[in-house]
Design brief:
It contains one helix and ten strands; from the N terminus they run E-E-E-E-E-H-E-E-E-E-E. The protein has 124 residues and is mainly beta.
């Protein structure tokens, strides 16, 4: 059973940066996808960026489209990162790391494995 744990959230001023970390275990599939999502209360979970075990990244999702979020991974450490730059108050949300077997994607309903989330708050 895959297990994911996020960390790195916190408070930051507008225009600032944060790097979130997700440590994962139990992903034994020959092909899998890891992705970052975020959610604010009352809204649907939003896909940001995704990466597969070959290192290919998604080009869909609001994060990669804006060029604000960058995903990367360290296979030796079983870790995936989300670098977030130029943060604004509307980026405040709970950020989640998720995993699924198979190819790249950002449809949250297709991801069966989720971390507990890490809160990001952007305010002055």
């Amino acid at each position: 059973q895959p297990h994911l744990v996020e960390s790195g959230g916190g408070s930051v001023q507008p225009g600032g940066s944060l790097r979130l970390t997700c440590v994962f275990t139990g992903l034994t599939y020959s092909r899998y996808c890891l992705a970052w999502f975020r959610q604010v209360p009352g809204k649907e979970r939003e896909g940001l960026v995704a990466i597969d075990n070959d290192g290919s990244t998604s080009t869909t999702g609001s994060g990669s489209t804006k060029g604000q979020f960058t995903i990367s991974r360290d296979g030796a450490k079983n870790t995936v990162y989300l670098q977030m730059d130029y943060l604004e108050p509307e980026d405040s949300a709970m950020y989640y790391c998720a995993a699924k077997e198979g190819y790249l994607g950002l449809q949250y309903r297709l991801f069966p494995y989720w971390g507990q989330g890490t809160q990001v708050t952007v305010s002055s």
